[in-house]
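Structure (tokenized):
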């Protein structure tokens, strides 16, 4: 057996019973993509793994049976993806705690939540603070990540300006869930939906109609004459973004990240304005704007399985079975 194949096998032992992006393997081991592909083909023929093609990406399922063994790779660098918003004001505390625990952290800001969740699914980031709605939606296709059902809630508005009956929303997101909820309750009278994938694009194109969007985007719309129709409390939406953890993290790493995440949330609940300077530097959002966001977002308690059923009722009938979506929840205790 070649030394490279042995390294790949040792690496995969940490992921038995899990789906991981194939691209993660050559990145983590520093081995050429073509050589890893050859070895995986051999392992597939030997019945040790199964490979799936999803669009232009490949996902590897490591079959149970390989002995459990924690494998250190030289990575220990974490890529965290966040959506452009005022929501993650605890981020500075999370990054600080991860650094204390030996991680080198790189934060990437995405303009679209669904694109970020896909980046998590395909191994481009290790952690994603993205909308729970999108995390659930993509999970049955990839199964390469888990979700920690805790985060912040609040921070959105349903707005309206006369002149159009169109409703604008981001796609497969908390905003989309709010849009569907408002329509189903007859709270807005929209004739059609237009989706935006970048808030800056929304601000360029929208002049009237209904808009479902988040802080700080809705502040700009209010300046342009849009009036607020509904707030989070009025629509009974108790969630927004949650933490997605890539299966490329070992169980030890996942536990470390979760502990740091919980600590950061608790610190935010006590001192919400502590890391505003850091967050402003990461996102480019003005500190005075972020200070107003501390009054908008609150830490949620641990969300139960009921919130998953609530989200699924808005978009998932019975194909696939709703049971599969519940597998996304990270149930490991700290």
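Design, position by position:
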């Amino acid at each position: 057996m070649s030394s490279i194949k042995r390294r790949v096998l040792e690496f995969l032992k940490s992921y038995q019973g899990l789906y991981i992006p194939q691209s993660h393997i050559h990145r983590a081991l520093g081995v050429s993509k073509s050589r890893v592909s050859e070895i995986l083909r051999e392992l597939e023929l030997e019945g040790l793994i199964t490979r799936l093609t999803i669009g232009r990406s490949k996902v590897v399922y490591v079959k149970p049976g390989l002995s459990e063994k924690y494998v250190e790779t030289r990575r220990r660098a974490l890529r965290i993806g966040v959506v452009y918003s005022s929501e993650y004001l605890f981020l500075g505390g999370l990054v600080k705690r991860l650094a204390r625990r030996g991680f080198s952290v790189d934060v990437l800001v995405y303009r679209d939540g669904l694109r970020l969740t896909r980046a998590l699914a395909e191994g481009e980031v290790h952690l994603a603070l993205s909308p729970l709605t999108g995390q659930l939606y993509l999970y049955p296709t990839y199964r390469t990540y888990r979700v920690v059902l805790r985060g912040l809630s609040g921070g959105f508005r349903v707005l309206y300006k006369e002149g159009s009956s169109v409703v604008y929303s981001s796609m497969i997101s908390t905003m989309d869930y709010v849009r569907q909820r408002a329509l189903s309750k007859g709270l807005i009278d929209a004739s059609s939906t237009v989706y935006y994938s970048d808030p800056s694009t929304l601000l360029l194109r929208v002049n009237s109609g209904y808009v479902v969007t988040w802080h700080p985007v809705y502040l700009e719309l209010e300046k342009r004459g849009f009036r607020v129709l509904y707030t989070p409390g009025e629509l009974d939406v108790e969630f927004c973004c949650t933490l997605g953890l890539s299966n490329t993290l070992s169980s030890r790493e996942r536990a470390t990240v979760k502990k740091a995440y919980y600590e950061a949330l608790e610190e935010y609940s006590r001192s919400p304005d502590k890391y505003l300077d850091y967050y402003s530097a990461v996102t480019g959002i003005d500190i005075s704007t972020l200070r107003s966001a501390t009054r908008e977002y609150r830490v949620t308690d641990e969300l139960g399985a009921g919130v998953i059923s609530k989200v699924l009722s808005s978009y998932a009938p019975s194909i696939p079975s709703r049971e599969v979506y519940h597998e996304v929840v990270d149930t490991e205790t700290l």
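Reviewer-requested clarification: Confidence is low (pLDDT under 50) at residues 68-75. The first strand starts at residue 19 and ends at 21.
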